[in-house]
Structures are given as C-alpha cells and as structure tokens.
Amino acid sequence: MATIKTIIIDDERLARSELRKMLQDFSDIEVIDEAANVDEGIEKIETLHPDLIFLDIQMPGKTGFDLLEQLEKAPHVIFTTAYDEYALKAFEVNALDYLLKPVEPKRLTDAIHKLHDELQKQHGANGAHIRGPLSEHDQVFVKDGERCWFVKLNEIRLFESVGNYAKVFFGNNKPLILKSLNALEERLDTKVFFRANRKHIINLRWIEKVEPYFNGGLLLELKGGEKIEVSRRQTVKFKEMMSL
Q1: 144 located within any domain
Q2: Which of 154, 79, 157, 145 is nearest to 111 (CA)?
Q3: Distance between alpha carbon 63 and the CA centroid of its chain, in Å?
Q4: pLDDT top residue among 115 and 119
Q5: pTM for the predicted model, two decimal places
Q6: Where would a tag sit more exposed on the chain, N or C end, judged by fewer CB atoms within 10 A?
Q7: Do both 75 and 184 map to the same domain?
Q8: Within 10 Å of residue 130's Cβ, how many Cβ atoms?
Q9: What is the CA radius of gyration of the chain?
Q10: CATH code assigned at 216
C-alpha cells in the first residue's frame, strides 16, 4: 500500500511525540511533520500536501475548526482532543474519526482502518494534491455558525452568490461560505460545474430537466427542486457542452 503522508497538529509537544511513537506500528503511515498551532499547521499543509492530519481541536488562539475553514481543500482528518463535548460536533463535520486523549492503541487502530477503507473507496485519487481544479471527489470544509461539514464536491448541486458569500446547496443544507462565485469558478472543474448566470454555478450531474426559457435562455431544474435560469450568453456555451 502507498505511504500515507501525515502531519500531527497539536499544541502539546508530549501529545505529539506520544502519537508519533504509536504511529510507528503502522508501516504505511509516514509522519512527515508536526505543527504546534493553527497558523503553522496551515503553512505545513499547504507546503507538504499531506494525505492525513491528526488535528487537536482546542489550541491556544485558534481551534482545529478554524484551521479547516482556512484550507482550500481538506485532507483526511482524525481529530484528537481531551474534550469529550466536541465529539458530536466533530462527527457532524464527518471527519474520519475522533480520538479522545490519552489516545488508546485500539481506537487508533480502528481510526487507521477507517482511513484505509476511505482511501480504497477513492481508489488512488492520488496526485489530487497538484494544484489544479478541485476534482468532484475532493472534499471541502464548510462551517456555518456552530455547524460544520466535510462535503465532497459531487454532493454539492448549486452555489448561489449572496454578496461576498456563496450559499452552498447539499442535502437539506444551505450554509454560507466566505467566497465569491468568481473565486469558486476559478477552482472548480468546468466539466462538472457550470456558471449558469451571474448568481449561480450548478453541478451538471444534478440537472433533472432542461426547458426553453425567455429570450433564448434555458430553465434548468435540479434534483433538489431548485429552478435556475441560464442566461442567453451562457445558453450558447451550455448547448455546446451538452451536444455530442
């Protein structure tokens, strides 16, 4: 199995070295670096592109959730924390797993097994870290107030512009993220995501119905029930893309 590049992010030196020691039992996990706070963690993640991070939630200054919010693309995450109250919140973000400190070897083994299962599902979407468009299998971290999620891009059916924010539609959720549609459009895969008009980017795989609309435009109905108008200019592009 390929090596899983890993970074440990925790403000306690002892906790980091203890975890590093425990991870020596897993031949495919390679701890490539450590970080003692959020800013250092972000810098190392963006430079080294790990496959996995062990992330402490409570750190001085900024929390582990703050770190995730600042990343463009989230690696796999296993939370480590001494605070049980965070357990439910961590699971809502759909992290791989959640380890309570002091970390028990059995729980660590379970978490690594979950990681292997997840990586197999993605069968080697390796090289995904090269900075190019975000693929539909990449996951992004979305935080809205106290609620947080990891969402795979293929689960997102629509982005809607709301001032400097974008509303993200997935499942029954519509949280806001602090990103403009233009910034998102630059990073999204154009084979999957299409700019329908000034206010909307849609996931082409979520289109249920296409109808002609005013002024030579189109009206798209998504599987979530949303109806989105395609501007006349973008209709030309849309028809070109969809024609065989």
Answers
A1: no
A2: 79
A3: 17
A4: 115
A5: 0.67
A6: C
A7: no
A8: 7
A9: 20
A10: 2.40.50.1020
Strand partners, 159: 168, 201
- Exposed, middle or buried, 113 (CB in 10 Å: 0-12/13-18/19+)? exposed
Greatest mean pLDDT range, 110-119, 130-139, 186-195? 186-195
- CA distances (Å), origin 212, targets 93, 135, 216, 218: 39, 30, 7, 5
The two tokens of residue 61 are: 């200054």
Which residue range forms the structural domain that includes residue 160? 154-242
134: which strand partners? 188
Q: Please indicate, yes or no, whether residues 76 and 169 belong to a single structural domain of this protein.
A: no
Q: Sheet holding 218-222: strands in order across?
A: 207-212, 218-222, 227-230
- Considering its fold, how many domains does the chain have in total? 2
166 and 235 together in one domain = yes
**Same-domain check for residues 77 and 176:** no
Contact yes or no for 192/153 (Cβ under 8 A): yes
Average pLDDT over residues 39-68: 93
52 close to 5: Cβ distance less than 8 angstroms: yes
- Residue 159 tokens read as 């982005």
Q: Which phi and psi angles does 6 have, rounded to 5°? A: -130, 140
